Amino acid sequence: MSTLGAADGPVREDDLHAYVDGHLDPARRRMVEAYLQADSEAAARTADWAEQNRRLSALFDPVLDEPIPPRLTAAIARGRQRATPAWSLGGWVMRAAASFAILAIGAALGFGAARYLGDDGADDTLQATLPLEAQTAFKVYVAEKRHAVEVPAADVDHLTQWLSNKMKTKVRPPDLTALGWTLLGGRLLPSSDGPACLFIYEDKAGRRVMVYLVSNANNEGTTVQFRDQNGVRSLYWLEGPLGYALTGNLERGDLMPIASVVKEKMRF
Questions:
Q1: What structural domains does the chain harbor?
Q2: What pTM value is reported for the model?
Q3: Which residue from 258, 244, 44, 247 is spatially nearest to 141, judged by alpha carbons?
Q4: CB within 8 A of 1, min separation 6: which ones?
Q5: In terms of domain of life, where is this protein from (predicted)?
Q6: pLDDT tens profile 194-207
């Protein structure tokens, strides 16, 4: 990167992130803007980050305004009843506020809050969280044009070895070319059940589907199930060391033959 004046130091990656997030003071912001005008690559990168922030905000901000589900408010009420008399009203208010914050953040991210609150009716099994997290990943990453994947299909051998090491089991993107789907690449990401990864495919019409994999520590097995979340659809199942979720905007009937091939190809 180019450097600025000695008094302010060079523009670094964290400066660019702070610029996108609006956390720079006015003087530093002006310097970063001058830097971006001179570096088209850095400008494009920060524009991508800003667009990611916009999409994440569009996805998750409405959730923060939704009412707390009755089953969760009931869980908080039960927690209050179990509390000792030594609790003051102020302590309860603070605890409730913290709980509401955790619930809102967990709902926005699509996972985590139920596990924090404990087993009070929340379905936090892998079978339940798998499609939710897959559909969240689809919304965040698949629409990206430049940064949908971390490792492109051209480096599929490296991608396979890297993800297999992280997932602690053999992982390789299934070949879907016979169905008209070309691999774009893949990426590693976290989940509430440990490491997860995804592979993104595109057809000649520009449509994309995603194969999402997550660790299945208990080696549970399930039949293929279906979930539709506002037009983002998943066929998902557990088999061997992994959980699978084929996810896209396609109709269920269009996803089914792809899921059949994925199931066959992913049996090592």
A1: 13-60 (no CATH), 70-117 (no CATH), 126-265 (3.30.200.100)
A2: 0.57
A3: 247
A4: 10, 11, 12, 35, 39, 42
A5: Bacteria
A6: 899 999 999 999 99
